[in-house]
Amino acid sequence: MNENDQLTLRQKAMLIILEQQHSGITRSQLTELLSPGLTVSKVSVIRDLNTLLGLGLICVEGKGPATRYGARKAGLLLRYYDLSSYFSHDPDSRLLTEQSIGDFLEELRIYPILFEEERAKVDETNAHYQMCLAERTEDILRRERERFTIELAWKSSRIEGNTYSLLETEELIKTSREAAGHQAEEAKMILNHKTALDLIVASKEDFRQLSLDSIIQIHRLLVSGLGIGEGIRTQPVGITGTAYQPPAKREELEQYLGEALRLVNEKSHPLEAAIIISAIIACLQPFSDGNKRTARLVGNALLLAHGYAALSYRSVDEITYKKSVLLVDEQHSLYWYKRLFLEQFDFAARTYFM
Question: pTM of this prediction?
């Protein structure tokens, strides 16, 4: 996923029209509504509708002349934003959503994040992954786990500003020798990822139902020795690059995390649950630091506990990742975050066997 993956002006106009039609409209009706301001051919409309369908922004019902198109119903959760346009504005000039965290969590409880066709594709991909996994010998599985650990520790740390290269990370994890020219804290951050992942892999079943204690445990391992306070924070924090302010009080954070954990543990699909809990941890910022690292590892813990491929984030664009998280913070939209998560899952299922 990248910032060039944006809608055209005509596609945006289509989406606006479809969002205003509560019962859906036919292709000819859509063309008629577009025509006063935009010149459009039948072929172009068909192509644009297929693009919107492929991006999960609209749905279709019926066949032939009776086919009707409509916007997906998901509250604010999957609202589309043009990344380039949205982030061309300074943080203080971007209007934040007025939706409360409580209402955000309620929408996450009511509306599905994954559509039926997305679930089917994820499960088909994971079934192939499991079949390949079953064919691997134990020595190959050990090598695969090591490779995944190295690449996750490298990319997750890099997202946080760590300057170790992938090869330096490999050498550190394999030999414990720190690379020259780097701060000691950078090596510790990387090794902490290995420690946390080792725990998750060794005790997968413990993460089938997430708890506040399990999230705190993962955070504690990730920030060990880095001068970061453990446990739920008791003071307010700010986030670089946004005017969004996470909840300030410990009582609020524990309340919202409790609600998030209840709804996540009730979700029927592990990947949907992993998307939600990782997005919520990054949004709430319940710890004084290390929140996004914790979000990524908690999401992986849930996936591995249910037999799904874990994400290394190796191929993710770091800036796009950060922007997708900020859209969750500022607008409670998981559109780009979900797309990134699905793409990274597909990449992981095709790349690793652990």
Answer: 0.88
